[in-house]
Amino acid sequence: MACTHKFYGHHAHLPGENGLLPKWKAKTLIIGTFNPEQSWHPNNAAEYYYGRLRNYFWKVLPRFAGLDAIPHADVPAQLEFLEREEIAVADLLISINDADLNNQEHVARIKTVLDDKIELFSQFTWNTNPILDFIEKQQVEAAYFTKLGNISAVNPRDNTFEGQIRKIENYCRSKKIPTFRLHTPSGQGLGAGSPREHKLIHRWYNDNGAAQFPFLSSKFDLRDYAHR
Length: 228
Fold this sequence. Notes:
CATH topology: Uracil-DNA Glycosylase, subunit E
Distance between the termini: 48 Å
CATH class: Alpha Beta
CATH superfamily: Uracil-DNA glycosylase-like domain
Strand order of the largest sheet: 3-2-6-7
Strand content: 5-15%
Shape: globular
Largest sheet: 4 strands, parallel
Helix content: 25-40%
Structural class: alpha/beta
CATH architecture: 3-Layer(aba) Sandwich
C-alpha cells in the first residue's frame, strides 16, 4: 500500500495529478517535501501545509505581507491569506509507492517525517512535472524551497529531493525566474536566538531571498522583529 501525501486531492487543490497544487492564481510558489497521510502517521495533526504545532511557517510568512501571524490550525484563514496574496504552497512528493503499511520498518521511517529516511525508499511519484506546468501556466514570478538541501552536491541522484529541486531550479533559471532556498520553517539548525520566529524572519530576509517575495508589503520592517 503506497503512502500518499496527506493533502493530495485537498478541496482547495486542482484535480487529478495536480492534487497538491492550489486552484487560485499564484505569483509566488513555496515548495516543501512531503507530509504522510493519517493511516501512516496517526499523530500527524497538521490539517494543511506546515500545520504542525512546532512549525513557524504561519507565524512568519504573513509578517512579510504586513499581517499578523495565523494560527497553525486555522486552515480557512491560511487559505484566504494564500489566495489573496497569490501564493501557492506545494510539496515535491505525491506518494511513496514501495511503502508497505504492514512493514513496521517502513512505518517507522515514514513517521520520522525526515527527508533522508523517506529517501531510503526507491519508488516515488514526484510532483515535479505538475509543478513545472503550474509555473509556466501561472507565470510564477519567484519560487522558494523550504529545504536548504545540499546545494554543493555534484550530480545528485535523480530520485531524491535534491535531484528534484535541481530540476525545478534549472527550469526556472532557463525562464529567468528567481529561485531561493529558505531555512526550514521548523527552525531546526537555526542556532541561538529568541524569539525563534523573529530569528527565522531575519534569516529568510537577509540570507534566503524573502526580501524578494512578490507579496512583500511596504509595511514590513525588519526592525519590528528584534531578537537576542
